[in-house]
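Q&A log
Question type: sequence-to-structure
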Amino acid sequence: MSLGIYVTLLMGKDTLEPASVLLMNSLQSVSVTTSDKDQNGFQLTFLAGRCGVDDMDDYPLLKEKAINLFNRVRILVSFGADPKVLIDGIITHHQLNPSKEAGKTTLTLTGKDLSVMMDLEEKIKSFESRSEDNIVEEIINEYSSIGLKAKIVKHDNMQASSSDNIIRSQRTTNLKYIRQLANKFGYVFYIENTDDDPQNNIAYFGPAKWEEEEQKTLSFNMGEFTNLTSISFSLDALQQGNIEGKTQNTEDGNIEDIPKVKSSREKLALYSIAYLCSDVKIVKLPSQKSGVSQTDVNTMAQKEADNASSSAVTATGEIDSLQYKTVLKARHKVALRGVGHLYNGLYYVNTVTHKLEKGSYKQSFTLTREGLGSTIEKVDKL
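Response status: OK
Response body:
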């Protein structure tokens, strides 16, 4: 690419090697999407034309072993000498688009992050006398050969020691089962790349990491410090997390009030949407499931309160990557300035889509938080 931004493709089955000269010369565009709710994904688009007698039998690009299905791809972008991993993933789909026009035939490779390897085989399996965190660690360790390292935060309500006679059953893929366990505690599970150790990926099981240190500040309409080309906001009055109700205690059958819960996530806005709309209160009942303990009901209510109140304000925009000079990451905080006190401040990054072409690198994003007003007086990371 131009102006000091470089793309690196490492591809292969067991060993990752730099993509061939043919692949790199044919590469037209790269798209990578990272999200806090879905698997990360990527698309690589190549020109796949034929020319000369040697290409009569087929497109030369299709003979490249590096593009085989279920091969691994690591995509890095470098600002000067500072490489950042955009995604470490697996090719799952080919799309060939022949064209009557010379030089217009394209081949697009589509793939997902390494968690797709955890979603290939449905299993029937039992786990006896093991807590949920131990089960998750055991499953993740099955994928150590592809560089997955477990990072697990134990929840207070996780049960079972070696003396407990609790049997937990799995009847789905490893990925879906881990997400079932995560959902039980209001947790998230995802694969996260690391720039310091690009050979490995963190398989994170725990609460949304809002407490993490924020990234380089996003700036708008601030002269030479501006690094956004566009941004817009929406404010939704219905995104309130007032969870109230009653439940039946499974131990004695008594009907009990569910303790009123507020979001347990870090406060990013000065005024929550519930505070801004205090004259109209929206109350939501917690999800009801039979045969669950009072502790589990409270945990589910807390999760629903966290999720309901976290997206009252949504910001969407696009980054001038040449000015920003780094990669914005989903699932972490970022500070925003230059849009006025009500919308300035800290946000959680929900999604980022990286689109790279020759001479162009765009990062589009979605940010969320629970209300208006900045909780910080100044930003730290410029």
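Response note: The chain has six helices and 24 strands.
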